[in-house]
Structure formats: structure tokens, C-alpha cells
């Protein structure tokens, strides 16, 4: 077994999994929603539905990867909380609950629905619980009925599905009506559901999403995805999200593998390989992967999720091309993650962000967006792919 696989398995089993197991909240359900940089835990913190969905996905997939029955028990615990986060009257999942289980933020965001679908499909595959699959399909039907129009997917809604402004995913001083990020994670959620239950209607949805990526999101002149849009897909800001492009390069490629449509693959895969190539040229260094570039100014901070997705994106590009530069990038990323980004303090996990000089920012170790999904998935993908790479 190659050293990269051995070390990824160790990172997953001995570091990431024990940390998240330790946040289980048996008193109120789910998992503690906040841990400060100094490792102070906040059991009173709100419980974000995205965070809980990602935890459910993580433990479900970790069980499928490692076969440890205790991981399936953790997944069941997260599943029970996700059911409480679901609005059985109006459909969809809320944005957040208070620690005691009452609704803290009733916003229905399309991005959030996508992650719940992803999690429920993974839990079904791990547990065989048919109720989880039914819930996943119910959410998919809600998304198709409530969250899209003829042009694609919309963003934010009230509890009873009236349009709402998109503060949740509009960043960098813009208010977006459509975002690349939401489209990507609907693609991801639907792909997970397709792998669990490959129905023709979902196959059509996935092909449509890839066509939107190709025709509306991808900018062939700049060799990047645009990020924030008005209703007619006019881009709202000069922003190059290196992390999302390298993430898309392998996530959408997985969808192509699942669909096994030669004509679609011939159209889309060159775009995905171009994304990987362009980020290799613009964002990769010997000491991690830059975050983004706004109006020509590069954010050189090393964000936890971006580092994990960069490793997987280059691993996937190496799979298709065999080019040594991508194998070298995988090794470089792993060493940076292992030696700099992974927080080796007892009782911690990964830093949220590390500055270019290698010092960690004093940001939370757990909050609504900081989760075991990106880093855990990176480890599991390495284990499953078994690349013959020495580090």
C-alpha cells in the first residue's frame, strides 16, 4: 500500500473521526455547533443544518469506507437530528436550529437542500434505511418544484417558499440571484442520490446542470467559472474562486463517470481538465493553494477546505492525464496539509485558515461551515482510489 494511502487512513481514523465523535450531543441531539480556536466548546451554539448534513454524510461514508459499526451509530444520531431540521408541513430543511432543537433560522436555501440530499443518500447507502431514501427524493422534488425556473436554480426562500434575498451565499459585496456554488452542490447532491437510486428523471437533471455549467458558468476566455450572477447570468464581480474550480474539476467528473454518456463526457471533461490546469498555473505553490483572486488581487490565505479539494482535483487530473506535474501537486498538497494545516493540538482537528507564512488564524475549529466533509472526503477518496503515490 502506498504511503499516501497509509497516511490518509491514519489521518481519518486517528484524528478527524475521534474529534467529531467527541462533539456528539446526547442531551439535545446532533452535534455541538461551536468550538473556538482555543478549543472551548459551546454546547449552546446553534446547530446549522448544513453542518449537520455534512456530519451525517461524513459518518455514513466513513462507515462505508472503514466498516466500523460505531460510525454507523454516529450517522444514525445525525440522521435523527436532520429529521428534526425538516419542515414536514412546507417541505425542505431549515437553515439552523437552536441548541434545544427549536427553529433558529427558517430560511430555505437551495444550497442547503442539496447538502441534505447528499447526506440522506449516503445514509441510505450505509444503513439501508428506506425512509432516508424517501426523504432524499422528497427534497429533490421540492428543489425541482420550488427552487428553479426555466434558466436554472435560484437561491433563498422563506419558510413557506417565498423568494428571499440571498445573504447566505452572496459575498464580496454583491447580492447574487444565482451562484456557481449552489449549482455545484445541487449537482453534488443529485449525483449522490443518483448513485443510490439511478432514476431517469435524475439523470436528466444532472445532464441539464452540466449544460448550465458549460454554457453559463464556464468562462472559456478566462478559463474559469464565474461565481455570482444576476437572473440572466451576467456576472456581478471579477472573482476567480480557485477552490471552487478545483473542486468542480473532480466533482463534476464523478458525475460524468456515473452517467457514462460519451457525448456529454466529450463536451464537459475538457472543461474540467482546463479548470485543473488553470488552477495549477495560477493558485498552486510549494506551500499550499491560494484561496481566490478578486479584481486581480490574490488572497493567499490557505483555507482548510480549499487545500483538501486541491489535492483531490489534482489527483483526478493525474488519473486522466498521467502528467507528473499533477502527481507532484498531490504530494505537495498532502505534505502541506499534514505538516501545516492539520492541527496537532490534543483534542483538535484542522485549522480553519493558515496564513501564507504558516501561522494559523485564530478562527473557530467548528462553526456552521467548518465541518468534517472536505477533509474527511479527501481522506476517503484517497483510500478508495488507492493511488500509488509515495509521500
Question: How are the SSEs ordered, and which strands pair?
Answer:
Blueprint (H helix, E strand, L loop, with lengths): L2 H19 L25 E2 H18 L2 H16 L11 E2 L5 E3 L2 E2 H18 L2 H17 L1 E2 L2 E2 L2 E2 L5 E2 L13 E2 H17 L3 H18 E2 L4 E2 L2 E2 L9 E2 L1 H18 L2 H21 L1 E2 L2 E2 L2 E3 L2 E3 L2 E2 H18 L2 H18 L11 E2 L18 H13 L6
Antiparallel strand pairs: 1-2, 2-3, 4-7, 5-6, 7-8, 9-12, 10-11, 13-16, 14-15, 16-17, 18-19
Helix pairs in contact: 1-12, 2-3, 2-4, 2-12, 3-4, 4-5, 4-6, 6-7, 6-8, 7-9, 8-9, 8-10, 10-11, 10-12
Can you describe this structure?
The protein is mainly α and 391 residues long. The chain has a single domain, classed as Alpha/alpha barrel (Glycosyltransferase), CATH 1.50.10.10. The protein is built from 12 helices and 19 strands. α6 (180-196) packs antiparallel against α7, α8 (242-259) packs across α10 and α10 (304-321) runs parallel beside α12. The model has no long low-confidence stretch (mean pLDDT 97).
Any low-confidence stretches, pLDDT <50, length ≥5?
A: none
- The amount of helix comes to 40-55%
Class based on secondary structure composition and strand pairing: mainly alpha
Spatial order of the strands forming the largest sheet? 1-2-3
In CATH terms, what is the fold-level topology? Glycosyltransferase
Question: How many distinct beta strands?
Answer: 19
Q: Main beta sheet: strand number and arrangement? A: 3 strands, antiparallel
Q: In what range is the share of β-strand residues? A: 5-15%
Radius of gyration (Å)? 20 Å
CATH architecture: Alpha/alpha barrel
The overall pLDDT, averaged over residues, is 97
CATH class: Mainly Alpha
DSSP helical segment count: 12
How far apart are the first and last residues' alpha carbons, in Å?
12 Å
Overall form: globular
Taken together, the total number of domains comes to: 1
Amino acid at each position: 500500500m502506498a504511503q499516501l494511502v497509509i497516511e490518509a487512513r491514519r489521518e481519518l481514523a486517528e484524528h478527524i473521526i475521534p474529534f467529531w465523535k467527541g462533539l456528539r450531543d446526547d442531551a439535545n441531539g446532533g452535534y455541538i455547533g461551536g468550538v473556538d480556536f482555543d478549543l472551548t466548546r459551546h454546547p449552546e451554539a446553534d446547530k446549522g443544518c448544513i453542518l449537520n448534513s455534512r456530519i451525517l454524510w461524513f459518518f455514513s461514508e466513513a462507515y462505508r469506507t472503514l466498516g466500523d459499526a460505531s460510525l454507523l451509530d454516529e450517522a444514525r444520531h445525525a440522521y435523527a437530528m436532520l429529521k428534526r431540521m425538516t419542515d414536514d408541513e412546507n417541505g425542505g430543511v431549515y437553515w439552523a436550529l437552536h441548541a434545544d432543537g427549536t427553529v433558529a433560522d427558517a430560511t430555505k436555501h437551495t444550497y442547503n437542500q442539496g447538502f441534505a440530499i447528499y447526506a440522506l443518500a449516503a445514509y441510505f447507502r450505509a444503513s439501508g434505511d428506506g425512509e432516508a431514501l424517501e426523504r432524499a427524493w422528497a427534497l429533490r422534488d421540492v428543489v425541482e418544484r420550488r427552487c428553479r425556473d426555466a434558466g436554472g436554480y435560484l437561491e433563498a426562500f422563506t419558510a413557506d417558499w417565498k423568494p428571499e434575498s440571498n445573504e447566505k451565499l452572496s459575498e464580496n459585496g454583491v447580492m447574487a440571484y444565482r451562484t456557481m456554488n449552489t449549482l455545484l452542490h445541487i449537482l453534488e447532491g443529485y449525483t449522490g442520490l443518483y448513485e443510490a437510486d439511478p432514476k431517469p428523471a435524475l439523470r436528466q437533471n444532472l445532464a441539464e446542470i452540466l449544460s448550465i455549467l458549460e454554457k453559463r458558468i464556464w468562462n472559456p476566455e478566462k478559463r474559469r467559472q464565474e461565481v455570482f450572477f444576476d437572473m440572466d447570468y451576467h456576472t456581478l464581480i471579477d472573482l476567480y474562486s480557485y477552490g471552487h474550480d478545483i473542486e468542480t474539476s473532480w466533482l463534476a467528473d464523478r458525475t460524468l463517470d456515473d452517467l457514462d454518456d460519451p457525448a456529454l463526457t466529450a463536451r464537459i471533461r475538457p472543461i474540467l481538465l482546463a479548470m485543473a490546469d488553470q488552477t495549477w498555473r495560477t493558485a498552486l505553490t510549494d506551500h499550499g493553494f491560494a484561496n481566490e483572486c478578486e479584481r486581480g488581487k490574490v488572497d493567499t490565505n490557505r483555507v482548510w477546505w480549499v487545500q483538501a479539494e486541491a489535492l483531490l482535483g489534482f489527483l483526478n487530473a493525474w488519473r486522466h492525464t498521467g502528467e507528473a506535474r499533477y502527481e507532484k501537486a498531490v504530494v505537495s498538497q498532502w505534505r502541506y496539509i499534514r505538516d501545516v494545516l492539520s492541527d496537532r493540538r490534543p483534542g483538535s482537528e484542522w485549522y480553519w485558515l493558515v496564513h501564507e507564512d504558516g501561522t494559523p488564524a485564530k478562527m473557530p475549529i467548528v462553526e456552521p461551515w467548518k465541518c468534517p466533509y472536505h477533509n474527511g472526503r479527501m481522506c476517503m477518496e484517497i483510500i478508495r482510489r488507492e493511488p500509488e503515490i509515495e509521500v
